[in-house]
Amino acid sequence: MYLHSPGVEETILPATPGQTFHYRYRNLRLLIEGHDRLFLVPATWSASDSTTVVPFDGSARLQFQFVNERP
Fold first, then answer.
1. Which tens digits make up the pLDDT trace of 14-31?
2. Deepest of 12, 13, 35, 54, by most Cβ within 10 A of its Cβ?
C-alpha cells in the first residue's frame, strides 16, 4: 500500500510459493466501515496525516487486534 504516515510500520513478508500477500502493516486503526470499503488511519492520527481506503472485497486480508491499554 506504500503508506508513509508517522508510526505506521510496513514489514515485507518472507516469500513462499503461492503467497498472495507480501506486506504487513501495523499501527493502523479502523476509522469507519463504508458499504464496500474500510477507512484506516494511523494509530496516532493528526489532521495532516492521510486516511487509507481499502476495498472490502477480498483483495486485502485484514486482522484487527484489540489491545486493552491500562493506565
1. 999 988 888 888 899 899
2. 54
